[in-house]
Write a structure and sequence with these properties.
About 65% of the residues lie in helices and about 0% in strands. It is built from 19 helices and no strands. With about 475 residues, it is mainly α. The termini are far apart. The longest helix has about 35 residues. It is globular, with a radius of gyration of 22 Å.
Length: about 475
């Protein structure tokens, strides 16, 4: 062994530091080109990095060999999704829900219920599972993902072509519905184990969700008052605002976890309560806090996801004889087509913020599945494995629920992977289609370089401004 080779410490952790940081540095260098010229976002690239360097590719990123099991994946997803839904609550316009409760309520109520039931029917018919397993899987896939949503709805050339009321409505939905999915998930789980409806109402609806949201709103409100007190007396440095923001998100997730509350409703409620009056957004609107979180936390998690995708389990196994790549691909495309688009088109007239059928089609398509589904699938497995929210390091060898335990994880991972790619590249596809649908003399010099509003959407004010850009601004276009 040479002197040089003795100096090398080729451990998994060291590879991870080098690969993830190299990817993030490269993306940061070309972020404007990727986001505003190519109309792409970081999650598909981050996932591909994880695949290329993971067990399927070079094999240098293999979290399972490092001892990172389901519990680590669960906690990483919990924190990152919790921070993201907190960020959504902070970034929404001032007192947003006072004006737009009806639109968001329609998305969280009828639309999400339809998504849950239709997805369950597709899983039941295509994968031949029993009904309770189908309901559990569909509950994991029903919510739209705040992390993937943020990667597209964040400020970019494409997002500025979408009316702000649409962007804010979809952001608000993505912030709420990972938490709202808990009743759907536990309905399937309780049906599987035979728990009473009374227990579901008390444990899930009242304790986890209702108390969780109220707790978050209270935490956010008093955190806002504490920060304003400290800032008014010059006790806090301006550089500490980001630290306070981030730690408050972590605190809300930790508080929820400790008391078995709905993590994501607590975090979203805390963000909403924290920024309800618009003061914090006005203080920090030039710091681009969500962009920093997207690049550091979210992209790293998608690299991790790419490295843990269970490729071998996308084929038939002892407990999953029916799983084949063909069935999973069929399920993916049918979910993309039927999960949201039909119901939003049907309910368009009752959703005030959706004003044209083109807008309804966009909102129906734009329902990505991501890290929230990853967390919910591990939550479901944990409940089936140990009757708690704490997953075992590996699925048990024997269990009365062995088949659903073995089915949930590969199905959810496959749909997440497909959604990352389809929704991640949708913006580029829409931009190219919009470019070539114009007359030749109206096209931008570069393909997809148009800056005007998308055709078929109502763009008030000439620039697509139907909502204030930050929560500290007034809303010039209330629809309720």
């Amino acid at each position: 062994m040479s002197w040089f080779s003795r100096k090398l410490e080729l451990t998994g952790a060291h590879y991870a530091y080098l690969i993830v940081s190299s990817f993030l540095i490269l993306y940061a260098l070309f972020s404007n080109l990727v986001r505003n010229r190519l109309h792409l976002s970081e999650p598909p690239f981050a996932t591909l990095v994880g695949i290329v360097f993971g067990p399927l590719g070079a094999g240098v990123l293999d979290p399972q060999k490092w001892g990172l099991q389901d519990n680590v994946t669960q906690e990483a997803a919990r924190v990152i999704v919790g921070v993201q839904v907190f960020a959504v609550g902070v970034e929404l316009p001032k007192a947003y829900f006072r004006r737009h409760w009806k639109s968001v309520g329609m998305l969280l109520g009828p639309v999400m219920t339809f998504s849950w039931l239709v997805t369950a029917l597709l899983v039941f018919l295509i994968l031949k599972t029993n009904l309770t397993t189908a309901l559990i899987i569909s509950a994991c896939l029903a919510p739209t993902d705040p992390v993937l949503a943020a990667s597209v709805l964040a400020d970019s050339q494409f997002s500025r072509r979408i009316p702000r009321r649409i962007r804010h409505m979809l952001s608000a939905e993505s912030g709420c519905n990972d938490g709202v999915s808990f009743p759907f998930l536990y309905a399937g789980l309780f049906a599987l184990v035979g728990t009473s409806v009374k227990e579901w109402l008390l444990s899930t609806i009242l304790w986890q969700c209702s108390l969780g949201l109220l707790t978050g709103l209270i935490v956010g409100h008093y955190a806002n008052r504490a920060l304003r007190f400290a800032d008014g007396r010059k006790y806090i440095a301006s550089s500490s605002f980001f630290v306070f923001y981030f730690l408050l998100a972590i605190f809300s997730v930790g508080l929820a976890s400790l008391f078995s509350l709905d993590d994501f409703l607590v975090a979203f409620g805390a963000g909403t309560g924290f920024a309800w009056d618009g003061w914090f957004a006005n203080k920090t609107k030039s710091t681009h806090l969500p962009d920093t979180l997207d690049l550091l936390l979210n992209s790293s998690m998608f690299v991790y996801f790419g490295a843990i995708i269970p490729w071998a389990r996308f084929s038939p196994g002892p407990e999953t004889e029916i799983l084949t790549p063909g069935r999973l691909v069929a399920l993916l495309f049918l979910i993309i087509l039927l999960r949201r688009i039909p119901i939003i088109l049907a309910l368009k007239r009752w959703i005030p913020d959706i004003r044209t059928y083109r807008e309804a089609l966009f909102c129906g398509h734009f329902g990505p599945v991501g890290l929230g589904a990853l967390f919910l699938s591990i939550e479901a497995r944990a409940q089936m494995e140990s009757s708690s929210s704490l997953p075992l390091p590996q699925p048990p060898a024997k269990s009365p629920y062995k088949k659903p335990i073995e089915t949930v994880w590969p199905v959810v991972c496959f749909i997440i992977l497909g959604s990352i790619m389809i929704h991640g590249f949708s913006v580029a596809a829409i931009s190219v289609f919009s470019h070539y649908s114009r007359r030749e003399d109206e096209r931008a010099p570069l393909i997809g370089g148009e800056t005007g509003g998308l055709v078929g959407m109502i763009h008030e004010g000439g620039g697509g401004e139907s909502e204030p850009s930050v929560s500290g601004d007034e809303d010039p276009d209330s629809v309720d």
